[in-house]
Design a protein that fits this description.
8 strands; alpha/beta; six-stranded parallel beta sheet
């Protein structure tokens, strides 16, 4: 859930409610969101990491049942708490056991996750080399914070298996063209040449996916996804695991769901 469209008290209450419905099965996932998603809603993507920090400062305290007073740049609370008017004393019981996962892409956000979170969710359409780099930053952040527990590193990975490897790559090509065009921050982190990602975005903006997808070569597909034949996909997922992804979250492209379940899960 992004930290712009809902205030921290509402988010704390939401996750406390979910934990009551499914105790021990809820993960609180927070992230800054994306300007391309927030701008159409009239929301300015202002200082996302500062805002994320403030939410992470107060939400665990609210979930622990505290009355929270806080004066931040974006979060202003005056003895706020999450309440159940039918409960003894009105306070919702402590929900401090809900794990906190932060969705992060850039180095500062990923390292912040390493300092405060139980897990981090890395973005989609990023190469194995990116995982190596971010894993080093995470480990350094954990050491600085004196963290004693391990951090769960999750990553969303585009998967496009097909009996015909060429068709598998073709299906992934379309998704990659859209994602790298719509999310320039992710495109920057791929390590691809800026001239290429700019040309890709221009093609997408003028002619849609049909114009942009042919620009995405097999080398790019193989770099930022697990695509092709089933064995190609398995080998690529193994590389992500070896680089430090503890929990690969598979995102099958359109038409690949059943084969993904049958062969990769």
């Amino acid at each position: 859930v992004n930290v712009y469209t809902r205030n921290p008290v509402l988010l704390a209450l939401t996750f406390a409610t979910l934990d009551e419905i499914a105790p021990g099965r809820i993960v609180m996932g927070l992230g800054a969101g994306s300007p391309s998603v927030l701008a159409p809603q009239g929301i300015s993507f202002d200082r996302p990491l500062t805002r994320l920090r403030e939410y992470c400062d107060v939400i665990p305290r609210l979930l622990a049942g505290e009355s929270v007073t806080y004066a931040g740049r974006y979060v202003q609370l005056d003895a706020a708490r999450i309440e159940d008017v039918l409960a003894r004393g009105g306070a919702v019981g402590p929900r401090a056991g809900i794990p906190l996962y932060l969705a992060a892409t850039g180095p500062r956000a990923v390292e912040y996750a390493g300092e405060v979170a139980d897990g981090v969710l890395l973005n989609v359409c990023l190469p194995v080399s990116y995982v190596h780099e971010r894993r080093r930053g995470l480990d350094a952040a954990r050491r600085r914070a004196g963290a004693r527990s391990s951090l769960d590193v999750a990553m969303c990975i585009v998967v496009s298996p097909h009996e015909d490897p060429a068709l598998g790559r073709d299906a992934a090509r379309r998704f990659i063209a859209v994602y790298l065009s719509m999310f320039p921050n992710v495109a920057r982190e791929t390590g691809l040449a800026p001239a290429f990602t700019r040309r890709l975005r221009e093609a997408f903006m003028t002619g849609g996916v049909e114009s942009a997808a042919p620009l995405v070569g097999d080398d790019v597909v193989d770099m930022v996804s697990a695509s092709g034949g089933v064995e190609d996909c398995r080998a690529r997922l193994a590389e992500y695991r070896e680089a430090g992804v503890d929990l690969p979250i598979l995102a099958p492209v359109e038409g690949a769901l059943e084969l993904t379940i049958d062969s990769l899960c």
